[in-house]
Fold these 2 entries.
Entry 1:
Amino acid sequence: MACCSLIITSSIIVLLSLTLCIGLVVFLPQNPKFYVTDASLSQFDYTNKTIQYSMALNITIRNPSMKFTYDYTAIEGNAFYLDQRFSTQNVSVWKPPYVNKGGKSFSMHTVFRGQQVLNLSDTQISLFNKEKDNGSYAIVMRFILFLDKLDAKVFCGLKVPLAANNGSANRFKNTKCKFVK
Ligand SMILES: *[C@@H]1O[C@H](CO)[C@@H](O)[C@H](O)[C@H]1NC(C)=O
Ligand SMILES: *[C@@H]1O[C@H](CO)[C@@H](O)[C@H](O)[C@H]1NC(C)=O
Ligand SMILES: *[C@@H]1O[C@H](CO)[C@@H](O)[C@H](O)[C@H]1NC(C)=O
Ligand SMILES: *[C@@H]1O[C@H](CO)[C@@H](O)[C@H](O)[C@H]1NC(C)=O
Ligand SMILES: *[C@@H]1O[C@H](CO)[C@@H](O)[C@H](O)[C@H]1NC(C)=O
Ligand SMILES: *[C@@H]1O[C@H](CO)[C@@H](O)[C@H](O)[C@H]1NC(C)=O
C-alpha cells in the first residue's frame, strides 16, 4: 500500500512540474527578434563639418513568444556614424498601441533624411573617404522600443551601400540586431 501511494504521489509531482514547464514556455515572454532587412543611402556627403544624409531602411520585427504579446507605443531610431549621432527620429508612433501577438511579425519602411554637424578628425575623414570609394558606410543604428510597460534597446551594426553604387558586391545583407538591457 505504502509503495503505491508513493508512486502515485511522485507521478503527480512529475505531472505538475511538466505542466508548469509547458506553461512557462507558452506564457513567458521572449525578446522580440529585430532585423534590418534592407538599407540604402541616396545621399551621404560630408562637407564643411556637416553630414547630409538620406537613408532608407526596411525593418522587420518578430515576436517569438508563443502567447505573450508586445504592445508598441513607438519605435525611435538613432543613427550613428563613427560614434557620433547624426539622426534621431521616430520610425513609428502608435495610438492606440500596436499589438504584436506571439508568433507574428510586422514590417516598416522609414527614411532618415537631413543634415547634422559632425566633428570628424582627420583620421576619421580619411576613413570616410575610404568608405566612399568602397561604396558603403558603417552605420550603427540604435532603436528604442517603447513598449507598454518597459522600454528595450537594440543595436544594429550596418554596412549601408550608396544607392548610386548598384554593383552586386555591395548588396546590403539582412542584419539581425542585438538586444541590450
Ligand atoms: C524596402 O521595401 C520596399 C517595398 O516595401 C522597397 O521598394 C524598397 O526598395 C526596400 N528597400 C529600402 C532600402 O527601402
Ligand atoms: C561653411 O560653414 C561656414 C560657417 O558655418 C559658412 O560661413 C560657409 O558659408 C559654409 N560654406 C559652405 C560651402 O557651405
Ligand atoms: C518618439 O515617441 C516616444 C513616445 O511617444 C517619445 O517618448 C519620444 O520622445 C519620441 N522621439 C522622438 C525623436 O520624437
Ligand atoms: C572638434 O574636434 C577637435 C579635436 O578632436 C577639437 O579640438 C574641437 O574643439 C572640436 N570642435 C567642435 C566644434 O566640437
Ligand atoms: C548602375 O550603375 C551604372 C554605372 O554606375 C549605371 O550606368 C546604371 O544606370 C545603374 N543602374 C541602375 C539601375 O541604377
Ligand atoms: C566594402 O564593402 C563591402 C560590402 O559592404 C564590405 O563587405 C567590405 O568589407 C568593404 N570593404 C572595406 C575595406 O570597407
Entry 2:
Amino acid sequence: MPQNVPDFRFSDDAIKVRQFLYEFWCARGYPPDLRDAAEATGFTRRRLMQVYRELDLGIMIVIDQEADNVNLLKCMPFSAYPTQARLIIDGRFNGYLGCAMEAMAASKMPPFAGKSCNIEAHCACCLAPIGIVMSDGALTSAAPQSALIHVSLSPWYWNTTNVMRMCDSMNFVIDRSHAQRYERQTGRVGALFTLQQAIAFVSRGVATRMWDPHRAPDFIRPAELFEGLKSLGVDLSVWER
Ligand SMILES: [Zn+2]
C-alpha cells in the first residue's frame, strides 16, 4: 500500500486475525491457509479477505492484492517464500524471515523469549554463509563479525505499492568490499547498516509487535524515516542530493 496513508485504527477483527497469524507462524514455521484462519477465527472467506487487506494497508502483512485467494506472502517478520535468512530455534527450522532487517527483529517475538535464535543467512553477492545468533532482540554473535546490511533502495521508494521491493533491497553482506561487489552486480549503490544500527532501527517496532495486541498500523513516511536513520548514524549520503 502507498506511502503517507492517513492514521487509522485496526478493527477488532483485524486484531484477532493478526494475533492468530503470529501464533500460527511462530508455532509452525509456515503460514496458515484461509481454512486455518477461518477455523481459528470463525470468520468467513469474505471477511478474511477484507481483514487481510486491512492488515496489508497497516503493513502488518503483505498479500497478493491481485489474487482471488489473497495469497499471504509475508506476516512480518516472516516470509512465506525463501529469503536470505532462515530462523533456526532449538535445531528446528522456524521459517524464513522477511529480509535482513526483519532477521534482526525476529528474536523479539514473545514465543521466542529467552531462546537462542540462529539466523542462517548468506552474503548477497557471493552466497557465502553468514551466521547470526540473537536472543530477546539482542545480538549474541555474528560470523563473520564484519557482516553488514546493505540497503539499496532509498526510503523515498519504500512501500510505493507494498513493501516487497523495500524488503528485497535489504541484504546481508560479508563486509564493505562485498557490498561494493553487490552494487556492481545490481548496478545500484546503497547505504550500509552495522548490525547494531539495524537492531536500533527495528527496535521501536519489535517492542510492540505481538506484545501489544492493540499495536497501531505502521506507516512509511519517508521524511521521518530519513531523520530517524540519520540519528542512528547511518551514512545516507548515497541517497541525498
Ligand atoms: Zn559476498
